[in-house]
Amino acid sequence: MKNNRKNTKNTTKDDKINNTPDPLDCKMIRLLQQDGRISNIAMAQALGISEYTVRTRLKKILDSGIIRVVAVGNPIDLGFEIAGNLKIRIDLKKADSVLAELKQIDALIWVALTTGGSDIDVEFVARSLKEFHVLIFEKICRIDGVVSTETSLMVDLVKDTYDWGTAWD
What we know:
By secondary structure, the chain is α+β, with helices and mostly antiparallel strands. It has 6 helices and 4 strands. A hairpin with a 6-residue loop joins strand 2 (about 110-115) and strand 3. Helix 3 (about 40-45) crosses helix 4 (about 50-65).
């Protein structure tokens, strides 16, 4: 599976604090969450500011990595036979190397270090049962430091929203 996703910037906690959106940035983000295709002109009109202000602020927000504007689809509707979630238990002493290897697997939509009953939580897609088998048994389970996996398969996507605003709203 070819990876067409743009790599997100690796930002530190300090970088994110320095790039904290102000109230106008938050309003712009909220509009983009509601309609990722909104034009700069429409956003300027909705906010009562100039298109130049929208364009320059939007560039700053996008360049900082705070948000990305992408097309989001239902994996099943896009032809993936299998989509789901993996809970992965690992040897925590090998967390960095396990995470680095997981990040390289294109079928993994997102990878997160977690607390609780598992150490890593990932979402995945697979075109077929064979591809799913390869993902689990030939890729993930062969990573040094992976102890076990627990799989949940998506049977129906009942809620999929991205308009939660920002913590600064």
